[in-house]
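Same chain as my last thread, 338 residues:
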Amino acid sequence: MILSIIIPMYNAEAFIGTCLDNLLEQQLNLTEYEILVINDGSKDKSKKVVENYIKKYPNVILYNQKNSGNGAARNKGIDLAKGKYLYFLDSDDYIVTNVLNYLLNILEKQNLDILGFDSINTKSSNLKASKNIDEIQSAPDFKIIKGTKFIADNNYRAEVWWYIINTAFFKSTGISFYDRKYVQDSYITPSLFIKAERVLFLPLDIHRYRQNNNSITHIKSPTHIKKHMHDLVFSVNKLGVLIESIQSQKCVFRLKNRQQGYVFFFLIRFIKSNMSFKELKNNLKDLKSIQAYPITHFLGKDYNGLKYQVLVFIFNTSFLLYPFLYINRFFYRTIVKR
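reply #2:
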């Protein structure tokens, strides 16, 4: 079997059908790839939707588990996978039709550890065709590089659904997902890249990221935001360990840029959270101990406007930081109560 597609699913009744339809409309024999749907304790009719596909398509496989989080679901998919390559796809997203055969041919011919491609944001379920696959097929530019160079030279995306990964390579790294809900890809993906010898990124229009207001990343309760903040801190610490293992200074600089970006957005999210100021101070003390705070590597080609410059200055100045957060939290809560 050439490919295993792993889809964690939680309450995706409205979207899983589109996700599966496009995966099944590919120029591949059903025996060549499997679609592993890991039902992470869904409470809606997601399971029933997938069961209807199983009746028609032998390559669609459903595994049911109690709610354990996205990371645990992906790990179970890896355990079950039989394919030479792995692709992680979220249940509310989808890919375009008739592209997997081309991508797999590239992976095979170029002996790649990781193959990356493009994604676009959308609220539509109907963007089924790739905008540029014919153009890329006619004149592909195969610049295969090490993963550390890829990180150093590119504005890489951390989300795993940007990449297809060689299964043997993935397992050889010993990397697995954590039982956490948010921002896992922020350290999993660069951890894979620094071990990869053969990486290729093609500007192919492949993936559709659905802007779903009901997804876990869009929930706005103060408790939910606080949990997200804790996972951001966890990610910052994991990236800190990773940074210490890298010799390439350009790669280190890029990872520090990402790491401190998470610190920046951690502080932004504090305003809408129910985290106490005491806990905030303790977190900043810990982040300072691993040189992730103050924010010194965040501003650059990704974030360089006046707004970001002013905010970084405030965040790095203690006698400005706490009044700024207190006032903005007060006004935010006043507006919400209205």
